[in-house]
Write a structure and sequence with these properties.
The longest helix is centred in the middle third of the chain and has 24 residues, at 177-200. Strand 6 (300-302) and strand 7 (305-307) form a beta hairpin. The protein has helices spanning 12-17, 19-29, 49-56, 93-105, 109-129, 137-142, 144-154, 161-171, 177-200, 206-217, 228-242, 244-259, 261-269, 274-285, 317-320, 355-372, and strands at residues 32-37, 41-46, 61-62, 134-136, 294-296, 300-302, 305-307, 312-315, 377-378, 400-402. It has 16 helices and ten strands. Helix 7 packs antiparallel against helix 11, helix 9 crosses helix 10 and helix 12 (244-259) packs across helix 14 (274-285). The chain is of the alpha+beta class and 404 residues long. It is globular and about 60 Å long. It starts with 11 loop residues before the first helix and ends with a strand. The strands form three sheets. Strands 1-2-8-5-3 form a five-stranded mixed sheet. It has a three-stranded antiparallel sheet with strand order 4-10-9. A two-stranded antiparallel ribbon has the order 6-7. The structure holds protoporphyrin IX containing FE. Protoporphyrin IX containing FE (HEM) binds at residues 86-87, 98, 150, 237-238, 241-242, 245-246, 249, 287-288, 291-292, 317, 344-346, 349-350, 352-354, 357-358.
Amino acid sequence: MTDAIQLVPLDEDAYYQDPAGFFARLRESRPVAPVRMPGYGRMWVVTRYADVRAALTDQRLAKDVHRYPGGGRSRPSEADNLHAHMLHSDPPDHARLRRPVQKAFTPRLAALRPRTEEIAAGLLEEMAAARGDVIDLLDTYARPLPIAVLCELLGVPVPDREWILASVLAYGMPDRPEESQRVTRELAAYLTGLIAARRARPGDDLLSALVLARDSAAGESAGDGLTGTELLSAAFQLIMAGFDTTVNLIASGSLALLTYPAQMARLRADPSLLPAAVEELLRFANPLKHATDRFTTEDVTIGGVVIPAGEWVLIATSSANRDPARFPDPDRLDVGRAASGHVAFGYGIHYCLGAPLARMEAEVAFGALLPRFPGMSLAVSPEDLRWRPVSLMHGLESLPVRLA
Ligand code: HEM
């Protein structure tokens, strides 16, 4: 039966370079559409706001591959065993895996803001030294800031941070799978060593807290302890989930402001708009094109379309955020807009654990950048910018700017 389903051909370049346009066409013509995705074969794409919100809370759209109908299987994109974490799990495991991380994460947020401000200020000083020239805002600001903050959170020693950054960048190379596998092994070995070091000498970082929770819960049935594999998976996932996403918010958010100079001027003139502006930038710039993949455990009807059991589904959060049925005039950036209700951080049980950290980082990043370089402008025309050819993330290859 399913072979008769007509697939929407995916024009890869249009999808990568203009996902908003690609999704808008689907939203209008086939809001729940079977699409051929590179690496996956057929996938279903859900594009309307109401369907996206409903799908994100539908337990029949599962993440734990052991529940795949007809027997467990692995994701096409996975070549490692680092996925014993919350984002690849379903209830009841999900809560067990999320709780200890949440507990270790939340109390560390307040202390991270002043550190993030210091890191941002240091990076802006370095950028100022290059003033007059064109600089890449990704290399100089959008990437180094989140990686430094993540390393602070996890307790990665300062001398190791450049290596972590290079590894995470190499991991995200879509066209070099062997490189990505090598880096995955190296990062796993590094994090295993770091966990052992924190066990020997705990600090006040998140990894130490997870190690202590694990050790004090050992032997208890209702403890907060993750197993060794789960702890490693959690550390790996936090780095992966917390890096590219925040990089994209800072870089694509900056691009959005640079292409809407009146909005940028408004934000500069009234920094109290920052929290609302960050929400609008999340809605508008969409660091992720869609939520991470899910599969149907049984036939599921979404928007009147039956998706058979055992099919992979992409829930296009970025499309929901541009759905005119939810956000009036959605393709216009308006830093004063009431953008709450956007689904850039997802919705339901997998709602982004790092959302408060990402919001704080973005507030600090834009709050420091805008007044520091009042004459900042794009150094190329927007059409010349290229977006990385990957499905999940929506991120620029580079962002050349003139600081004055
Ligand atoms: C602008 C930055 C960020 C965006 C747009 C973002 C977006 C998302 C989205 C959409 C999800 C849900 C995925 C799904 O349902 O398939 C998610 C989950 C998650 N995010 Fe983020 N994220 C960001 C930053 C961060 C940061 C900084 C961290 C931590 C350091 C983080 C940690 C996580 C974790 C642990 C999950 C899994 C939650 C669960 O499965 O219960 N994220 N994020």
